[in-house]
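From the thread on structure requests for the teaching lab: each student submitted one protein with a one-line request. Submission from student K.M.:

"Model Citrate synthase from Sphingomicrobium lutaoense, tokens only."
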Amino acid sequence: MTEKTATLSTDGNEYDLPVLPGSVGPEVVDIRKLYGQSGKFTYDPGFTSTASCQSAITYIDGGEGVLLHRGYPIDQLAEHSTFMEVAYLLLHGDLPKKNELDKFSKTITYHTMVHEQLVHFFRGFRRDAHPMSVMCGVVGALSAFYHDSTDITDPTQRLIASHRLIAKMPTIAAMAHKYSLGQPFLYPQNDLSYTGNFLRMTFGVPAEPYEVNPVIERAMDRIFILHADHEQNASTSTVRLAGSSGANPFACIAAGIACLWGPAHGGANEAALNMLREIGDVKNIKTYVERAKDKNDPFRLMGFGHRVYKNYDPRAKVMQQTAEEVLKELNLTDPVLDVARELEHIALNDDYFVEKKLYPNVDFYSGIILNAIGFPTEMFTALFALARTTGWVAQWNEMISDPEQKIGRPRQLYVGATQRDYVPMDER
Ligand code: CMC
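Reply posted by the TA:
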């Protein structure tokens, strides 16, 4: 079969560029040899049209609102699976058999404690430090403690580091929360599930027994599943870029956490909840919808719209259902949920939002759930980081094992001064 090509013509020359197919989704034009042949780079700020790698982990069709992990639709995973199983799936490529899942869960459980010396790190932070600043520092510091899993050329060490990161993130996130409250840290209790253990370390106190509520445990587990991976987003690309230089996995994940912290990425769920609170009452929605449509007003409906999804974010549907379940279980009537439901209804029937294909995204309902469970808003992004660590380590492992992967080194369109001679100070 003849290879498919695309032709680029410039300056009277033509260049045939290979077109590579994926298993599903858009083909890519392979421009790797273009510079060598033509002396020209391609220009794509924000990488909106550039595939930076090949990957077999996650597939998104934004137009159709499809999200698949290793081929499995996110709604099926959210309904039938557990976060541990999804972590295995992302890391190993297939759903585990029962004995494989049992072994994996046991291994993760085995690594949940952090080195006791690491506990002292927390005391160096101010009590009012943002949990994400603590997470960046403490996760980066893990590399100082686990030397035996930082040789990235050894697949066994890579796997151990991946297990350690997945296992220790809940412990570190819960400690960040406890530290902000001035409450004692709780050690993991390994007869609990991954998520139950996290809830106990976050909300339990040593003086009282802590009963894990199975409805909340399931809701939290589902939130973790919904955040586990999302293809080559900014933080995942950051992890890959950091890893491409051979940096150790703990340093790479710390870089991912730093990127995720930004309000345009992991911080939007906090902003969505604040917006719903600001709207406050169903009767105020119209005013805010008008403001969102007004080009002269910077206000946007937070939790609406997405760079990739131009249809309903499939994660938002599961989030809405989970919000209803959690509020019912906790016997809470949060007026914010009424505002969210009505706002969604109005926006989805408004020409502006319909034409621009703006739908609720994963962040629209998640803040309501996390708030109901008892998390302060500053913890929202830390929970996202905890869950996304599974995706990050899966993507990092895939990259290191890919023989075609090189150190990440984008080029640029230089628009600065051309060469000029140094001017002595007294002549400037
Ligand atoms: N409210 C009102 N108008 C909007 C909104 C919104 N939330 N989002 C986009 N638009 C309009 C925007 O004004 C623009 O209009 P025009 O074409 O007339 O200039 C058009 O829709 C396209 O917007 P864009 O900013 O060019 O689209 P983008 O793909 O660059 O931005 C986005 C995507 C998520 C940054 C944006 O939709 C947004 O700011 N949403 C609110 C913040 C939010 O909820 N972020 C969470 C994203 S999901 C988290 C994750 O998956 O990591």
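TA comment: The pocket of carboxymethyl coenzyme *A is lined by residues 230, 233, 264-265, 268, 292, 300-307, 356, 358, 361-363 (CB under 6 Å). The two ends are 65 Å apart (CA to CA).
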